[in-house]
Design brief:
The chain is of the alpha+beta class. 29% of the residues lie in helices and 30% in strands. The chain contains 12 helices and 19 strands.
């Protein structure tokens, strides 16, 4: 029924306090509308909790625009029994609809409303592991993991692969990964993940955390830590982990792969192949140092300067149709300036709305922006009979056996399998 139906529905249902079941009749078409409500996760810090309802509504809207095809109507905040909920109208939610919504960052419970009765609907999130993977790390400056999950959701939903969110093992890259909050969220979803971080202490902390967590939970894995060398000079370090949620998947080599490079994020193209990742998700620094070791440049870099220099490399390792999701402090980089940098790089701004802007503390107001890499049509040159035939990037990748595993561009694959071996880029 498309946009005309949704427009009519929005006009009729654009009010608070709709009945439990509305019947919408438009030019002969009859459709029953049910009422649903989300209970927001209560385990939020006080500052983030103040923005939770607004952020959740923005995230729901992202799901609604994409995988749910605009079927959620009249999304609003409403108190039920004195408790705030996010309420909406929709036709009947099927199993896949519920599974999509189960991955909302701050969802605690989902109910169908009938009169004064709230009937719980069982959630079915992507989560492959226990929640302590996300919550157990505690350190100063850690990005709220619920916001990291929101940023990842919104970014993946903005890709051209959004419909495969539940079925595809996405490959996610955080080029400023710190101690691995984004990598852990990707792992929780069963995605492959890679990150770059120039701070060796952060690299060591994440390596120790992940290794300890995997051992404590008796998860089958192979973990390797190695040095990256160029002409006998240590440039950085590399962590690589192949794991599986259970022994059967491990025996069949259905691995989830986690990789972390301790190096300057502006050199991403040095360590990863072109068009490796489906999504790039990162939180820009709040004025911290991200320069190269041994560089004559001032290491105290503004986020916009870093973004201008690093974005071309990030874009190269992103697959066509993939998206880059950024969050940052608007006090150090205005929204319009970030939009200009992203747009100037050739990325398409997916959404410029400001529904995700929220206060972190007195000095930080965080915002979110997503840019998408346009899909480029490629020419097949497999013989004269095929010259001029146009194939999509996905077709070319499937024919060439292209995969998602991040591989350092200048490192032989055989060197990847040796624990603690120094990797040479010479």
């Amino acid at each position: 029924m498309g946009g005309w139906f949704q427009s009519a529905a929005a006009k009729l249902l654009g009010r608070t306090g709709t009945s439990a079941i509305d019947t919408l009749v438009v030019t002969g078409a009859t459709r029953q509308m049910a009422e649903y409500a989300f209970l927001v996760l209560p385990a939020l810090n006080s500052v983030y909790a103040d923005a939770a309802q607004q952020l959740l509504q923005g995230e729901i809207a992202a799901f609604n625009r994409t995988v749910l095809r605009g079927r959620l109507l009249d999304i609003r905040e409403e108190k039920i029994g004195g408790i705030p909920y996010v309420r909406f109208s929709s036709d009947h939610l099927g199993a896949s609809d519920v599974q999509f919504l189960s991955n909302l960052s701050a969802i605690y419970a989902l109910f169908e409303i009938s009169g004064t009765r709230l009937t719980p609907i069982e959630l079915n999130p992507l989560d492959r592991f226990t929640s302590d993977l996300i919550t157990i790390q505690k350190y100063q400056g850690k990005t709220n993991p619920l916001f990291t999950k929101l940023l990842m959701n919104v970014t993946v939903l903005s890709t051209e692969f959004a419909d495969e969110l539940l079925s595809r093992r996405m490959s996610v890259f955080d080029p400023l990964c710190g101690r691995g909050t984004t990598l852990n969220q990707a792992l929780m979803y069963g995605y492959d993940a890679a990150g770059m971080e120039i701070d060796l202490k952060a690299f060591d902390a994440y390596s120790q955390f992940l290794g300890g967590w995997l051992k404590n939970h008796r998860i089958k894995h192979n973990m390797q830590v190695s040095e990256i060398r160029l002409q006998k000079k240590i440039l950085g370090h590399r962590l690589f982990v192949a794991l599986a949620p259970n022994k059967e998947l491990y025996k069949s080599k259905q691995f989830i792969k986690i990789e972390m490079i301790n190096a300057d994020t502006r050199t991403a193209r040095t360590y990863f192949k072109r068009e490796t990742f489906d999504a790039i998700v990162t939180d820009l620094p709040y004025g911290v140092r991200h320069g190269s070791r041994g560089s004559d440049m001032d290491l105290s870099r503004r986020p916009l300067d870093l973004l201008r220099e690093a974005l071309p490399g990030w874009k190269e390792v992103l697959r066509p149709g993939g998206s880059i999701g950024l969050s940052w402090n608007i006090h150090v980089a205005g929204r319009e300036k970030v939009i200009d940098v992203v747009a100037d790089s050739g990325l398409e701004i997916v959404s410029s709305e400001q529904s995700f802007r929220h206060t972190v503390d007195q000095s930080i107001v965080r915002d979110l922006l997503v840019g998408r890499k346009r899909r480029i049509m490629e020419l097949s040159v497999q013989g004269t009979s095929n010259v001029g035939n146009v194939h999509s990037h996905d077709e070319v990748m499937s024919r060439s056996g292209g995969g998602y595993l991040p591989v350092p561009a200048n490192v032989d694959r055989n060197e990847r399998s040796v624990p603690m071996q120094a990797i040479s880029l010479s």
